Amino acid sequence: MSVSAESIASAVKAAKSRGLPPVDKWNPPFCGDLDMRIARDGTWFYLGTPIGRAPLVRLFSTVLKREGDKFFLVTPVEKVGITVDDAPFLAVDFEVEGTGPSQKLTFQTSVGDTVMADAEHPIRVETRDGEPAPYVEVRAGLEALIDRKSFFRLVDHGVTEAIDGEDVFGVWSADTFFEIAKATDLA
Predict the structure, then answer these.
(1) C-alpha torsion sign, points 44, 49, 54, 55
(2) Whole-angstrom Cα distance, residue 84 to residue 114?
(3) Could you tell me the pTM of the whole model?
(4) CA distances, 97 to each of 11, 101, 143, 170, 172 (Å)
(5) Helices 54-62 and 5-16 meet at what angle, rounded to 10?
(6) Number of helices (H) and strands (E), helices first, in the chain?
(7) CB-based contacts of 89: which residues, under 8 Å, 6+ apart?
(8) Mean pLDDT throughout 48-67?
(9) C-alpha closest to that of 91 among 72, 64, 69, 114
(10) Residue 47 CA neighbour count, 13 Å, CB half
(11) DSSP code for 101
């Protein structure tokens, strides 16, 4: 079993002029697992070694697909499983435009994706070991972990809103309110 760099490159090249490859429409046969891992900090590894070439990581990120809790690199003719420690992407920065409910938060990932948080690309925050773990959906069920510095900046843009009779702290983006925490948990 081996996924060829050529098949991935040709799939990406063919779809490049139209944007990202339509991986959601591809359902090739499973060819086995590949010794590739995406660490929580967004570093991609192959055979235990970090992939140092950013264009190669970007290429792989464009053919990434999620099915349930599993992640795959797919082309029209082959699908291989990879390991993802947390989220496949890392949001490393964001821009803010406007204020209030019409405010827009646009995130940038370490692999070159840009996504505005909205109803289709929600922000969610889990708590792990007492610490917040914030995410934003990038595409098709693939999320980016929001890095620590960006999360602290995000909190600076937070407001308290009454939601269903309860005070909730969160942020607005594209007319959608995203809960960060219950206001009572912040006291």
Answers:
(1) negative
(2) 20
(3) 0.87
(4) 35, 11, 22, 16, 11
(5) 70
(6) 3, 15
(7) 42, 61, 109, 110, 111, 113, 138, 142, 143, 144, 145
(8) 96
(9) 114
(10) 1
(11) G
76/74 Cα distance (integer angstroms): 7
Q: Quickly list H helices, 46-114.
A: 54-62
Q: What's the CA gap between 94 and 81, in Å, rounded?
A: 30
Q: Residue 184 phi/psi, 5° resolution?
A: -65, -25
167, containing H or E segment: strand 166-173
Amino acid at 63: V
Is the model's pLDDT at 13 over the cut of 70?
A: no
Residues 12, 141, 143, 177, CA torsion sign: positive
Whole-angstrom Cα distance, residue 121 to residue 65?
A: 16
